[in-house]
Each structure stands twice: as C-alpha cells, then as structure tokens.
Design goal:
heterotrimer, A alpha/beta (417), B alpha+beta (995), C alpha+beta (110), B: 995 residues, alpha+beta, 7-stranded mixed beta sheet, 23 helices, elongated, C: 110 residues, 4-stranded antiparallel beta sheet, two-stranded antiparallel ribbon
C-alpha cells in the first residue's frame, strides 16, 4: 500500500499523479473464506478491517451488491456523538468516538473527523430535565457533555436566535465538544483500503441471493450473483436489507425498514460553526467542509425500499430549520435524497449471534448508525472472531426482545438519534 | 446607453424599456427582457466569477438553468441578498445589485488564483491523503482553512422580509416545459377539455422557439406559431399556464412539485405578493417536455471567459440581440452548432467553424455554412485556448485517422461557441423512478420504462427535429388526455447529425492538460482518470471522489462527459458504467418556497384555553406544553418564579387556589360495551364503578409500559368521562380507536374527543367548597353526599356542569367542567366569589409542586416510556382476577419481573435548602471510579414552601428496599447526600383530601 | 407524498393518514397463555418485505377509520385498500415481488 502523506502527494504532483495505484483491489471471489461479511457499508468494512488488524483473520470477503459505502454510509448527515443516556449505549458510542479520534492516522486516510461540537437545543422544561439527565449520566460514564445556558448556546453558535420570539424559544442546550462530523465516503474508502491492504477481498457488484445451511442447520456459505461462496462464519451487516437477507436463512427479525431523507443547500462560505440538533422541532443542521448546509429530515411513516420519501417530510424539516434560523429562508436546497434505515422496536441495534449457527448479525442502527461505525465494526469483529460478543455489544442481543431488557433511548428521553 | 455588443436589431428584448443594474458596483445597461447574463454580454463583460478551487477566471457558459460558472450574489434590498444566482436565469431589472463571488481582493485581481499554480497538488481527493499530521492541526488549522476556501457565495445573515406561498393543485394533465413539444402536448390535451397545467421555467414560454428565427412551422414563422398557440392556450379556461415555474421534483403517485418565481423580476413588488410560490400538483398524467442540455467539449483551457455553449451563443444572438463577440469560432462534433454559426453569420459577425468530424461524416449543414461564406475546418480538434480573463484564440489542429494531431493553428477570436452534442433532460423522469435506456445513436440516456403515469416528449426523449418534436408532443398530450387524436406537423428540418466525443484529441502531454469537465467544482478529465486509476469505478464513486456533478448545477453540463471518460478509461460500454441517480430538485429551490407560510404559529399551531386572556390580563407567564400555552405562574410585582410559586403553594393549602386545567384531554366513551372496553384498555377494573363515581385510571402500551393516566368518571352505565394528560390526548384517543376498530370491532362503543368542549376550572384548597357553594344549583356539596372521587351533574352560575370532586393537590378540591363557551364567565364568577376566601390563581409550576408534595406522578416526568405500574408503586391497582388488559402479558416478561428495577421513591437532601436538579443521577458510592454505577435519577425536584424544605421524587434501583438509606445525587459541582423516603411529603395520612 | 384510496372517502393525500404497520397481526385471544418467545414475536417481529406488504392505515384527518392496504414497498404503489377484518380481493400475496422491470405504463396507472 502506497502510504499517503504530504511527501508522497508532493512527489506524485511532480509526475502527474501517475504513480497512485488502486486504493483497493477488485478481486474475483475465492471459493471459501473464513469470514464472509455481507454488506460493504462502513460497518461491514470496519468489521473486516478489525478482523484483519485486531484478530489476524485476513481470509475475509466483504460482499457488496452495489458499490461500497453506497447505502446509509454515503447518505447520512455524518453526525458523530456519544452522549447517550443508558450505560449500554454510552459504552458503545463512546467506544466508537475514541476510535474516531485517531482514525485518520490509523487508516492513513483523512476521514476529516471534525470535533466541532454537537449542541442539542432544549425548547421546553421537559427537554431541560431530559438533557440534564443526559449530562449527569454522561459525566458519571466519563463522557463529556455539558449544560449551556441559552446565552452560552448563542456564544457557541452565533447564528442562533435566543430572543424568545420563536415558536419554541431556546431555553438552553447540551453540548458535547468532542462530538462532530466526518467525511462519510472517506470512512468507507479508508476502511476498504486498510482492509484490502491486509488481504481482505472487497467484492463489489456481488449480491447475496441465498444463505446455504448444512444438515445441522448451520450456515456454510452464501449464494451470490457471482456464484456460491463458502464461509466459516457469516456476518450480515446490511442495514435496511437485513430482514430480506436474514429471511434467506429462515430468521425473522424485529426490524422495519423506513425511508430516511436528508438534504444539502448550495455551498456557501462558513456561516455555521457546529452541529445543532433540536429534537423538539426535529431539525439537525451542520455545514460541511464543502460549504453546504447539511440537514437531516425524519423518516416517512411507512416501510419502503424505494430510497425515496415524500416532499412533506423534507418541507417539515425545513420549516423547523427556518423557524430556528430565519436568515436561511433565501438559501436553496441543492440536493435531497433518501436512505433505507432499519429500525428495531427499541431503536437500539442488534449485534451478535442469531439462532442459526455461524450466522451473525449487526443491524438495527436506525437513523444513528454512522457515528458508531468504528465501534460497531470493532466489537462485531470480536464477535465474529471469537464467536462470543465483546462486553460492549453483549447487551445488544436479539434475545432482549423476549426478556424485555430493552435499551430504549428514545422512549427514555424523546431524543432522536 | 452604450451597449457595444447589442445588435442593432432583433431579439425579444423591449428596446423601449431600458433598465440599469449594478455589477460589482458599476452600472450595467440593458433592456426589459434581458437576463443578467445577456445584459452583461451586451456590455462586453465576460469575466463574472472565480472558480471554486483554482480561482480561475470564469465567464458565462450557458443561457439557462445549466449554467455552472456565472454565479452571482444578488441584492434586492435590505434582507434580500442571496448568493449563487445563475446570471443566465436572473431576469435583469433596474435596482438589482449583483456581485461576483469567491475572490479577494477583487474579481480582476484575485490572490486565490495562486491555487491555480498549485493545481498539480490540488488534484481530485488530495485532501484524503494529507492534512493528517499533527493530529490536532485538523480542527485548528487545516479544516478552518479548507472551510474558508470552500463555498462560493455568502449566506444571508438577516431574516428574510419576503413572503412565500404554497398552493396545491389537481389536474388531468401536467405538461412540464413549454417548448415545441410541451406546447403541442398542452394544445392536444387542452382541446379534449381536460384540466391542463403547463409549466415552464422561463420568463416567457416557448423554449427553443424563442430563439429560432429561421424555422417555419406549418407554413409560418416559428414565432408566429408560438404566438398563436399561446393565445389559444391562454384563451382556454381549462388551461393554467405558468411561466417562471420550475418543476423540480417528481414524487410518488404523480405528485410533482414546482416553484413559481412571482416577484423577483418586478422592480416594485405588487402589494403583498409572495416572492415565490410552491405548487404541489397531483396530476392524472404528466408529460415531460423539458428539452435537452448541450454538452461542452473537453479540451485544454476550455473554461476561459468567452467560451460559451454554441446554442447559448445562438440564444444570446437571436433572443436577446446580443453578440457575445465579434470574431467567433464555433467548435463542434455535431450539426446543431452550424445553425448557430449560420445565425451568427447572418448577424454580420466574423465566423469560423471547427468540426471534429471528417468531411465525409458531415451532413448538408457543411455546404450550407460554406455557402454562407464561413470557413469550416472539418477533421479538426481543439487542443487549447489562448487568453486569460477572456479568450483570445482557439488552438486547433487536424486529426489524422490514427488519432494523431497535425500542425497547430491559432484561430484568433473573442468568443467561442462549442457543442459536444446534447443530453436529454431526463431528470424528472428519473426522479419518477422510470428506467433509462442508453441510445447509442444519440449517445444519450433516454426514458425507457415508466414507473408512474407519465410520458416524455420531444428533446427530453432524444427527438431533436422540430417537426418530430411537435408531432411527438401532440401525440403525448393527446394520449395523456385519453384521446386518439394525432397531428403531423410540418417544419423546417433541424440540423441534427452528431458524433460523440469524450475528450478532444490532443498532442499535449495528458498529465499536463487541464480540460474541465465540471466547471464549477474545477474537475478536470485528468481528475476523473486519476479516480478510475485509484479504483473508483462506479460512477457514483467517481462523483464522490472527484466531486464532479456535485456543484450547484448538479452536473447538467458535465455528467455525460464524466460518464464517457470513465467508460473510456475502463474500456467499457457507456451503459455498463451506468448513470447516476437524479435526485430532487432539478434546480436549487429556496428554503422559503418549501417552507411557505409555515412559520411561528403556522409552524405549529398554538392552542389556548378560554381562560387564556384572563390569565394574560392577570400577569401570568406561560409555558409551552405540547401545542398548548399554559399559565406557568402568576407573579405579583417584584416576584420571581420562586417567590410566586411559594406564595401560590401556601395559598392553596391554607385557603383556596384556582387553576385552569382545560388542557386536560377528555374523551367521552359511550355504548353498551363501554365498561368492557374500559376493562380491556386500563389496568383498573371498571365494571363495578358506580355511576357518579370516579377512579384514577392507568393505561399501558402493549409492551407493558405506562402510556397515560387520568381520572375517569362513570356518567352512566354506558358512559364514561375519561381524562388524559395534556400532551397525551390525541395519542390516547388514537390508541383506543386502534384497538376498538381493529381488535374488538364486536364491541359497541363510541369514542368522542371532548377536550375542546369542556373547559376545566380546578378549585383546590380547604375553602374550595365554601367558594362554590353559593354558585352551584342542584348538587348537594356536603362531604357525605359528594365524597372525594365523585362526579355530579348540575348547574353552576346557571351553566350545566359536570362537577368532579377530585384533587391533584391532596386538598379538598373540585374540577368544574363547563362548556367552553361559558368557561370565562364561570371562572370570573368563581374568582369573584373566592375573593372573600383569599382565592389565588396558580399555574402549572405550583400544580407540579403540590402534586409532588403528595407523591402523585406525572406521566412523562416520573415515567419515561420504560416504566411499569409496579415501578411507580401502582401494581396494587391491578385486580388479581383480571384476565387480560392491554399490556398485561408484557408485565410477565423475565426482565420486567426481575428484581432490581427502578422504583419510585422520595429523596430528602441533607441540606434542606438544596433543591436537586431534575435529571440528576444517583449513586451509592461517590468514591468509585468512572464509569460509575448509576442507580437512578431524580424525576421531580422542588422547593416546598409547605414543607419548608426541598423535596424530590426519583426512580431508584430497588428503591423500596432502600427506605431511610443514604444515597448520593449529582450536583453541578459534585455530589450531595440524600435520604431515601416514601414518595409523600405532606399530609402523609391523606386526611385533608376528604375534608 | 403517497395518494391513498381510503375505502370510505376515496383518494386522499398521505398527510391525512397514519400508517399502523403490518396488517393481519391478531392479538392472541389469551395473551397470558403465550410464552415469552411467542409474545415477543407478536409484539416485535414484523414481515418487512421487499415487495408486497399488507399494512394498516388510519384516515385520521378524514373519516377516522382504520383499513388495510396492499402496497409494494419497492415501488410504493398501492395494489388495493380493503376494510379491516377482510382479506385482499386482488389475491396478491404479501411478500410477492412484483418485479419493476415488468412495470408498464398501464400498471403504473392502475
């Protein structure tokens, strides 16, 4: 692997950048791998990367039916934070955040992790109670999160209107300074390059059409559009398509797949310094390094695989943005798009074993999976390598829906992810 | 005024109406009908901006919405400044102030142009390879630098004084685009009598007919046909003709969204007219006739100001009467540019044409142009351009059959018109999720399989000949309207031959050539090749890695060239590389148009009670609770929240308080099976509740967690008056209807929301009875006749009432339900009667404190969607004999019956003056390391004036086992010690309530 | 925004409706006899098909009535709507993949 650095960049610029090779290969699938990962999004690629780097398992294939990072990895609003309420979630997302903090250097790929801070606005007394509950819980979990008065919010995010004239005035906010954003595509590419370099086969345009099981019921490989591929263990990391894939192995999942929309404005010079989230009015806003305002909308109410939602969802989100930031009404929506998010009944992920031996699943991240990418990959690699969950993903079992031990952040706090 | 490049005649501008606007502070003269672009060109101004990355001088490329380079900030007055306006679509008018973007200190001299020298370093994706060391520098140095460099214009900083409107419309046939095909379609559809909407993004409908000065349609000039057609459409009542209206989004089930620019082109906005209007059209059928976009040629330095698209050059000549130059060179690989060259020649300009095609591949256009005295160089490529802030020459060379270039020749010029063929505008078709097909003959993707009720017509599906467009459009319009009518049009033949080219052949070192594909994002052919070399082979990967097609024009001019280069590099057929997904919007849409009037109270309605004005008049401050505005507290002069609430709390317990509880949700449940229905919905038993009695009801979701609560009165055997929480009313009614209609349709029960019908005046305190006694008729108020948790009907102040004897304070209390229309009068009468008893109005804050003193929970505060009845100590309400109710089964799940669940308790701080933070976390041992084990959190916490100390409620792991034990609660600075107690702090025996 | 044919009111925009998720999930007659696994299935496991889905809708801002619908989750096209307690008339089975490539304009208009 050609190392990326200023020196290599400068030396290549002397010769028209002809020396850069492929960032990852395009191999033909082998007949069998120790581990086959179904789904070439950020989580799947990270899983492969950590299988190779942490566990030394390199006979690994990542199968992607389209192009890597083309699902929710490349469609989300890239918010990264770890100020979750429950210990289980906090541990997961903080694990991820710590990995984010050194990820560019570890991958030798600038994924532009930008710790510009995520400010969550409180608009009513219930928000204040809920956010303080988060702030205190985070403090005891060693996660930075602080309560800001509305004046402190304004100082941190000058475009904010704290005059009290809004429909839902800003009463204050919770700020996680270590939180921020990253360049989503680069995360997929960086993990792919890192995994490929250690021998992992990344196979694009390879759709899984079946999961083969032996007489004992154990999974032994996958049928694909490029033939059968044998596998010691299979990890399904396919977000919105998980239900479909798992049903190939006869496993029903507590999942529903919804369209989730996002949009960007035309690019402008820096005008918005941080990430602002407002759960009360459903608005999520940041400005990308390219200058676009990046705005997350909500899910549609019905399940769909169309990657397209209704205009009313987008307009409702912009209603909220313009209610909070009236100066942006003359900005223009440049592009909007939809993803398919897989949502569990408690809106927390499922990471671990399934009833089928050798078949593992990592799904249910809903609208909040991007921020977990490194942590999710790291613990899922552990699960696949050892056959047992890492302490961090142990609570995120499929079985919790039977026992009732749900991890319901949203119910607990009415906080969207 | 001098407009040196305005032709002496021609064009559709109104030469009797001169206008003047500012560009970078200097006056620019033009005529009504000009765009900013045409007026700038009329004045010889080509340099209008600096590119995104390299700060290269850029000019005007096109005449329409595909313009990538000429982006200006437009100032229409205070608060009306916005960036990134395409000069080619902004209608020029007096008073506009336009400025170029992305340069410092000036457009002509831009320090940022140093980036152009560093372009060998700043290739596609270079930032992924560096800026990683030292780690801390990313946030502090590199990223701020990149962010400052990125973005073209500046975001508005002031609130927008303009208004935006929304309109919903239905029609039988929506026609998008009023060029030849769209007009013919609208005509055909309109003649059937169906309701037709014809929308066009231009200021004037007509599309290519507006600049077609030579064609004849059915024996008359195209312009005359246009006039007649518009007159016919305009005269029909079943047709809505919408100019300046861009269809930007094609959503599910033929839902098409369009924006109409209503006032931006007007010098003085007429009255209250909105700036823009969002049209949401639900169409029976849609005809997509959005035309096609011309492709630039990809050659070295193809981005100099003065290099335009050939057809755009023709538009400026014919429609605006502007010659973008005097000495023109056209460069093309197809026939359509010959038409532009002929028109330029006819306008008396010096014209040369360079055609990549061999002499033998050209059609009749060759002889025609040569016949007009124009030098045509066939079999020639373009290898570069001369000039810097304006093109001064085009470097051309013959190409041999082996692809090698012959001797270079410089064609001096001041303007270039280039044409690399045409790309049908399939954006809306693709958004509708129709499938595209690659048409080899025209080297373009065209609509293939429809997913919705639409059809494309004319150039939008690759039909470029005028007569064919008209005939196709008419057929599409007729078919959309369900008619078999067809009409064959006759028109002057259009020059349409074409030979696709990806990158113009060159003799230069390919690693040095900077041939731009995406002008705005400064993506060169070299960048795209680099991306492919690095393994980015899906077109989506190439887009994302190089940013080609991601700029404000969304790749309208660049996508096919980029795709072609990728295909060439991979040695694959173009359709094998695929095309990118087209996403809404077709062109950028203001947030304002999408938001429309949905601001403030129209963003979310504000609900107020009949007592609201009274409370306002009595100095109440309000809080938002769900959509409601509720009186929070009633401060007297000099009082803060703390003082007012302390006073209100004391007043209730010592005398009497009056509280507006009208926001409580109310549902009337009637029918033969009403009690059975209640049994199934609530954990409580209802069968034996006697009419006239009340019961506190608790309702679960099927997952066993508390959904809502409230007092329920049995009005009669078959009628219950149910109350819900303020925020839960709609949710509870929805929950009930769901079960009633879908699970138990056999039950004869009817549910009616009565929240708005009943206003509720809560009168609480030892003197409550004394206050209402003189006002009530027909109800015996004595404790024996009217005990706690009873309901009586009668009259109060001459108004019918359902009078509840209930209490959310622990005091003797009544909740007077009266019809909302009478509520204000009754409230005032009660308040007046209460004067003798020291009546005090109180708000939600005092209500919260008083109920907390008694340990009454608030759903949503003590509970959070993960709390069971047992957790809050209410499991005892569930009758043992009750076989089933919604949520019961879930209460038996292993983790719900396990020990160690969080339970409701009271907390008392060691320091009685310290009021805990709501949301504060609870631990047993403050000396443990982080992460600490948290046992629960504080759900409610207040200063209790009645107790003379702070009080708190909390959910604590195994809380009921911890009575009198010590725990520690977080404070902003650390921890404080508390003692666990029963969750009741006042009148523990509960005697007062039965007074 | 979807256009939904309420069996009582006719075609209305989606914003008048609330989607209630998968249809034909009957609440067990005696939930207490269902084991934990079965109850968890009842509460949480949903079909989530890529293809035809039977789902519930309520015309909350109209007649207020619940009804069932068959919708293709790939194209978002409705095949039919039908009253609660009834089975679809079209005979199309939930889970069927209709196949987008065969979609014609006439199907799109259906």
């Amino acid at each position: 692997m050609r190392r990326f650095s200023l020196t290599s960049l400068l030396s290549e610029s002397m010769r028209g950048h002809t020396g850069w090779g492929r960032q990852w290969r395009a191999p033909e699938p082998k007949p069998r791998y120790d581990v086959v990962i179904v789904g070439g999004g950020g989580h799947g690629l990270a899983t492969a990367y950590y299988l190779a780097t942490v566990h030394g398992i390199t006979n690994v294939a990542v199968l992607e039916k389209g192009w890597i990072g083309g699902g929710n990895t490349g469609r989300n609003t890239t918010i990264i934070r770890s100020n979750y309420l429950y210990d289980e979630s906090a541990a997961m997302y903080e694990h991820a955040l710590k990995l984010w903090e050194g990820l560019s250097q570890e991958l030798n790929y600038n994924i532009m992790f930008s710790q510009r801070g995520v400010l969550m606005l409180a608009h009513n007394i219930h928000d204040v109670q809920s956010f303080k509950r988060h702030v205190y819980a985070n403090r005891l979990n060693g996660i930075d999160n602080e309560w800001l008065s509305k004046e402190e919010c304004k100082a941190f995010c000058p475009p904010l209107d704290i005059s009290g004239s809004l429909r839902y005035p800003v009463l204050g906010g919770a700020l996680q300074r270590r939180a921020g954003t990253a360049r989503h595509d680069a995360v997929a590419w960086g993990y792919a390059r890192g995994a490929d370099n250690r021998g992992v086969d990344i196979i694009q345009n390879c759709e899984v059409t079946g999961i083969r099981r032996d007489a004992s019921g154990a999974a032994v490989g996958v049928e694909t559009t490029r033939g059968f591929i044998g596998a010691g263990r299979i990890g399904v990391v396919a977000a919105g398509h998980t239900s479909t894939l798992m049903s190939m192995a006869g496993v029903s999942m507590p999942l529903e797949s919804y369209p989730l929309q996002a949009l960007v404005s035309e690019p402008v010079k820096p005008c918005f310094p941080c990430v602002v989230m407002s759960n009360a009015v459903h608005a999520y806003l940041s400005q990308s390094d390219k200058g676009e305002l990046v705005i997350g909308a909500g899910t549609d109410q019905y399940t769909s695989y169309s990657q397209q939602g209704g205009l009313h969802i987008t307009t409702h989100t912009l209603d909220a943005i313009c209610e909070l930031f009236p100066q942006f009404t003359r900005m223009r929506m440049l592009r909007s798009w939809g993803g398919i998010v897989d949502v569990t009944p408690d809106r927390s992920p499922i990471i671990g074993k399934t009833p089928v031996p050798n078949l593992f699943v990592n799904c249910g991240w809903g609208t909040g999976g991007f921020k977990a990418t490194p942590g999710s990959g790291h613990v899922f690699a552990h699960t696949l390598a050892t056959g047992t969950p890492h302490a961090i993903n142990a609570p995120f079992t499929l079985d919790r829906f039977r026992t009732g031990r749900l991890i319901d952040e949203a119910a607990a706090a009415a906080v969207a992810h | 005024m001098a407009q040196p490049f305005r032709l002496s005649r021609g064009g559709r501008v109104d030469r009797t109406r001169p206008i003047v606007f500012a560009f970078n502070g200097k006056p620019v003269h033009g005529y009504a009908g000009d765009t900013v672009a045409s007026a700038l060109l009329a004045n010889g101004i080509h340099l209008v901006g600096r590119s995104f990355k390299y700060h290269r001088p850029r000019g005007i490329l096109s005449h329409g919405p595909d313009e990538p380079s000429a982006l200006l900030s437009v100032d229409r007055g205070p608060g009306r400044i916005d960036p990134n306006n395409r000069a080619s679509v902004v209608e020029a008018r007096s008073g506009l102030r336009t400025t170029s973007q992305n340069h410092w200190p000036s457009l002509e001299f831009d320090v940022g142009a140093v980036n152009d020298l560093l372009s060998p370093v700043f290739v596609a994706g270079f930032y992924y390879k560096t800026f990683m060391w030292p780690r801390k520098f990313w946030d502090r140095v590199y990223e701020p630098f990149i962010r400052a460099a990125a973005g073209l214009g500046k975001a508005p900083t002031q609130a927008d004084p303009d208004r935006y409107a929304n309109r919903h419309a239905h029609c039988d046939v929506l026609v998008v685009g009023a060029g030849p095909a769209g007009l013919a379609a609208a005509l055909a559809a309109a003649r059937t009598g169906k309701r037709v909407i014809l929308a066009d993004e231009g200021a004037e409908p007509g599309g290519s007919l507006l600049h077609d000065t030579t064609s004849q349609i059915d024996g008359r000039p195209a312009a005359d046909w246009l006039t007649e057609t518009l007159a016919e459409l305009d005269g029909r009542e079943n047709v809505i003709l919408l100019p300046r209206t861009t269809a930007f989004g094609y959503y599910n089930h033929n839902h098409v969204a369009m924006t109409e620019r209503v006032t931006d082109h007007l010098t003085s906005a007429a009255g209250q007219a909105p700036r823009e209007r969002l049209w949401q059209v639900r169409a029976g059928e849609v005809v997509l006739a959005g035309g096609a976009h011309e492709r630039p040629l990809v050659f070295a330095d193809n981005d100099r100001p003065g290099i335009l698209l050939a057809e755009s050059l023709r538009v400026f000549l014919n429609r605006y009467g502007v010659a973008p130059g005097r000495k023109l060179v056209f460069a093309t690989s197809g026939a359509s540019a010959y038409r532009a060259a002929l028109d330029a020649r006819a306008a008396g300009l010096d014209v040369t044409l360079v055609d990549l095609r061999l002499e033998s591949d050209c059609g009749p256009e060759l002889a025609q142009l040569r016949g007009a005295g124009v030098e045509v160089l066939t079999g020639h490529t373009v290898v570069g351009s001369k000039g810097r802030k304006r093109v001064t020459g085009l470097i051309v060379a013959p190409v041999g059959s082996d692809g090698r270039c012959g001797g270079r020749r410089i064609l001096p010029c001041d303007c270039v018109g280039m044409s690399g063929g045409w790309t049908p505008a399939v954006h809306l078709f693709s958004q509708s999720r129709g499938k595209l097909r690659y048409d080899d003959a025209i080297d373009a993707f065209v609509p293939s399989i429809s997913a919705q009720a639409e059809r494309s017509a004319g150039a939008a599906r690759g039909i470029y000949d005028l007569a064919a467009c008209l005939t196709d459009g008419f057929a599409a319009g007729a078919a959309a309207a369900g008619s078999d009518e067809r009409q064959a049009f006759k028109a002057t033949e259009t020059l349409t031959g074409f030979q696709p080219v990806r990158i113009m052949p060159t003799d230069a070192n390919p690693t040095k050539v900077r041939a731009f594909v995406d002008y705005q994002n400064d993506v060169t052919a070299k960048d795209i090749k680099l991306a492919v070399r690095e393994g980015f082979q899906s077109i989506e990967h190439v887009k994302r890695y190089t940013t080609t097609g991601m700029a404000t024009d969304q790749g309208k001019t660049s996508n096919m060239n980029a795709l072609g280069i990728v295909a060439g590099q991979l040695d694959k057929a173009l359709p094998a590389v695929g095309t990118t997904t087209f996403r809404p919007p077709y062109t950028p849409v203001t947030f304002g148009a999408l938001v429309g009037p949905a601001r403030h109270a129209l963003f979310d309605p504000i609900r107020t009670t009949p007592i609201h004005e009274w409370a306002e008049a009595h100095g109440a401050l309000f809080e938002n609770v769900a959509l409601w505005r509720r009186a929070w507290y009633f401060p007297k002069a000099g009082e803060d929240l703390h003082a007012a609430v302390a006073r209100e709390c004391k007043a209730v317990r010592e005398n009497v308080g009056i509280f507006d509880a009208s926001t409580l949700g109310k549902i009337e449940i009637v029918g033969r099976d009403a009690a059975e229905f209640m049994n199934r919905l609530y954990i409580n038993p209802w069968t034996k509740l006697a009419p006239g009695r009340c019961r506190y009801g608790l309702m679960l979701k099927e997952d066993g967690y508390i959904l809502d609560d409230g007092v329920v009165a049995r009005v009669s055997d078959e009628c219950f008056h149910v109350t819900t929480t303020t925020g839960g009313a709609a949710r509870v009614l929805g929950h009930m209807e769901d079960y009633l209609q879908t699970e138990w349709p056999e039950l004869e029960v009817f549910l009616t929301s009565t929240t708005e019908q009943w206003a509720v005046i809560a009168l609480q305190g030892p003197k409550a009875r004394d206050v209402i006694a003189p006002l009530v008729d027909g109800i015996d108020l004595s404790p024996e006749a009217f005990p706690h948790m009873a309901m009586r009907t009668g009259m109060i102040c001459g108004v019918p009432t359902r009078l509840f004897r209930v209490s959310f304070t622990g005091e003797l209390g009544f909740e007077i339900n009266v019809p909302s229309d009478h509520a204000r009068a009754v409230w005032e009468a009660v308040f007046e009667a209460g004067q003798a008893h020291g009546i005090t109005p109180y708000g939600t804050e005092t209500m919260h404190v008083l109920r907390a003193e008694k340990g009454y929970i608030i759903v949503g505060q003590e509970t959070d969607g993960t709390v069971t009845p047992d957790d809050v100590g209410m499991a005892g309400m569930i009758p043992k004999a009750k076989k089933d109710f919604v949520g019961k089964r879930s209460l038996a799940r292993p983790d719900v019956v396990a020990s160690g669940r969080k339970q409701l308790v009271g907390l008392m701080t060691d320091d009685p003056k310290l009021v805990l933070d709501e949301g504060a976390q609870i631990v047993a041992d403050t000396n443990q390391p982080i992460p600490m084990r948290m046992l629960g959190h504080v759900t409610s916490s207040y200063w209790s004036a009645n107790c003379g100390r702070s009080i708190a409620l909390a959910l604590v792991e195994g809380g009921r086992e911890r009575m009198n034990g010590h725990l520690h609660v977080t404070t902003p600075d650390g921890f404080t010690r508390v003692t666990v107690c029963e969750p009741v702090f006042f009148d523990v025996q509960g005697e007062r309530i039965n007074a | 925004m979807l256009l939904i044919a309420c069996p009582n009111c006719g075609k209305r925009p989606e914003t008048e409706f609330r989607c209630g998720g998968q249809a034909h999930i009957a609440r067990p007659a005696d939930p207490m006899t269902v084991d934990d696994g079965g109850w968890s299935e009842h509460l949480f496991v949903r079909a989530n098909p890529k293809g035809v889905h039977a789902e519930r809708w309520c015309h909350i801002h109209g007649c207020g009535r619940w009804f069932n619908a068959l919708r293709d989750t790939i194209s978002d096209r409705f095949i039919e709507t039908y009253p609660i307690g009834e089975q679809p008339k079209s005979g199309v089975k939930p889970g069927t993949i209709l196949g987008t490539s065969s979609a014609t304009q006439s199907e799109a208009r259906a």
